[in-house]
């Protein structure tokens, strides 16, 4: 899968980019529970280090 950075225009294979997964934890009744909503994957450009979101990261992984 090819990705293109919207900031500097760097184009490369998806394996060349870095990824950050947003994690949010809630404390409920003194227990930490994971948030249930879908999380976005932040793609980090290896050239300019800017992060950007894929429009629909889940569709690609599910092959729909
Ligand atoms: Zn870039």
Oligomeric form: single chain
Structural class: mainly beta
Major β-sheet strand ordering: 3-6-7
What string gives the helices and strands in order? EEEEEEEH
Number of helices: 1
Features:
64 residues, mainly beta, elongated, two-stranded antiparallel ribbon, 7 strands, binds zinc ion, three-stranded antiparallel sheet, single chain
Molecular structure report:
The chain has 64 residues and is mainly β. It has one domain. It has one helix spanning 57-62, and strands at 2-4, 11-13, 18-21, 25-28, 31-34, 41-44, 51-53. The chain has a three-stranded antiparallel beta sheet with strand order 3-6-7, with no helix packed on it. The longest helix has 6 residues, at 57-62. The protein starts with a strand and ends with a helix. The site of zinc ion has 8 residues, from loops.
Which helices and strands appear, and what pairs or packs with what?
Layout: E1 2-4, E2 11-13, E3 18-21, E4 25-28, E5 31-34, E6 41-44, E7 51-53, H1 57-62
Zinc ion binds next to loops.
TL;DR?
The chain is mainly beta and 64 residues long. The chain has one domain.
